[in-house]
Amino acid sequence: MTEVRTQPVTPRSIGTPVPRHDGPEKVTGRATYAVDHGAASGIHDPLQAWLVLATVARGRIRSVDAADALAHPGVVSVLDHTNAPRLADAENGELRILQDDAVGYRGQIVAVVLAETSEAAREGAALVRVSYSVEPHEAELREDNATYRPEVVNPSMPTDTEDGDVEAALAEADVVVEETYRTAYEANNPLEPHALVARWLDQPPPGEAVLTLHDSTQGVHGVVAALAPMLGLEPEQVRVLAPYVGGGFGSKGEPHSHEVAAALAARTTGGRPVRLAVTRQQMFGMTGYRTATISKFRLGARADGTLTAIEHRVLEQTSTVREFAEQTASPTRMMYAASARRTSHRLARLDVTVPSWMRAPGEMPGMFAQEMAMEDLAVACGIDPVELRVRNEPAIDPETGNPWNSRRLVECLERGAELIGWSALPAEPRATLDGDWWVGTGVASAAYPTSQMPGNSARIRSLPDGRYAVAVAAVDIGTGARTVLAQIAADALGCPLEAIELEIADSRLPPATVAGGSSGTSSWGTAVVAAAQQFCADHGSSPDPGLETTVSAADNPNQETHAMYAFGAVFAEARVHRLTGEVRVPRLVGVYSLGRVINPATARSQLLGGLTMGLGAALHEEAWRDPRTGHFVTQDLATYHVPTHADVTGFEAHWLDEEDPLANPMGARGIGEIGIVGTAAAVANATYHATGVRVREIPITADRFLD
Question: Which of 138, 316, 371, 673 is catalytic?
Fold first, then answer.
């Protein structure tokens, strides 16, 4: 495939609030999710799989007694480490399951039951008896055990950074803030659980793959790249399809052990497909989550609030079976100006399942801590929190020295302050009592990297009647990508939106990177534009049917010469009951600098979703692990709380009118994650303004405001 550089696209469809193309299928129940695939997809007579998970945090399997399970009506077979197929590549400790007797964490897959019905599979799994030799484990993140220094943090950022003499700057500062901020474990919990149907054919018919997965994933090519070598297959022997995905929030951005379990099971069935849906309870312990974080901040400033020193030390956790280091201090490196800056990450290596991506990994907990620290500095200096942020605006990126692609944070702060009525609010905390409710308002800044991932391609084929088939293996996880990509294609080809027939989410299509990192639209859209422009150059604007062009998008050179970010400001109104401590947030206002917004309807939905998740982090979400057992006690949506409709009332998402020609040919930046960044800090700052009680740990619960 030819690599093509793109030219800016003239917006026609871009910028209009086109209704989601997949809306009718979803609201009428016709959308086919992972385990819905049946005969129409070549899935005939599937077996149902149920997972048996380890009940110890560390140890060895002494025996697996499956006799009672195999005697249960409907149970066909039980796989464990003694009879499962061997993996050709077992380096990934999270995916290396059913290969030996070692148990690395509670919730690890130790057996798979296959049965004719899901009921028989579940009942059979309950009859499998596993005995263990238990070994000492560690499953609690503490300040004294987070001492391991990783080589890099996600994805490949420096672990530590230092510029200038931080200690000297702190010693000379007029004001010093030194505080610790904590965030809780969080679980992604998409509406559709992790699920797939796997079919293995040792001698597939022409045109068929050895292994076909109908998977709930954020990246079909990523699943192929991870699983093919493990299973001893060539990439072209594995096909992954994900036409509809019911959310992911990062947890479906990389394969987890259930996908390996389904593939291994399918290899043993003589061609019968295997259907596996991870239960809601199982998802908490085996399909990714956000690590808890401890952020230790020291800020030094002049009396007028101008920062002279910033130190951010992060303590968080990884797993002994595979390393994942969240890049929590990364936004601190670029957000505000100071001559001396230092950041670091240290991990506790625990006997637990592997943490992973969750919406705005790094930026969400890191900006929570930073924006709380800025509020503490504003109080210490006696300066308005909005003005403090304005005074510390950097002219260039403090981390790289590169110019900004566009940094309109001050405008976002000013516009948000106007919308929330900031100037009319009392400066002092605990000044407004409305009946039994203390009322306050808080602010926080937001930032998220703007990126275009390499390795994306697209194909354009001319059809009769002036229509075009556009193909790219992007996955729409509920964000509206299917609609937005069609808009981009229509404008790049100079045709009506109705003339585009879009095909996505199949690993046999031109490759596309994961739906994550707020990079999807930029990366896939650039590939679509490149293919469309090359097609028009080769075949003109009125081509005969049957012509085809496939190209790869060139890398964006501006990512090397400019600091590429989206920015925003979040304002929250909080009400805290003076007798019960109950917290309500009747209003959240976010104002963002996002470049050109391709579809205002889907963009607003994404931003409101991010604000809602930020509210959940601030007030509700906390996964609780018992350190004695390594067990997540919160394993359902009754004990793991998330916002409900009653919690989401006066939410507003606004953006500046602009375009970013440095970002991509569409002039757009990513929007999927910036809505959650800063939101929890704005809520926490608002509760302080309401009550005068400073809570530096989320979730903020009612007891924090009671004597």
Answer: 673
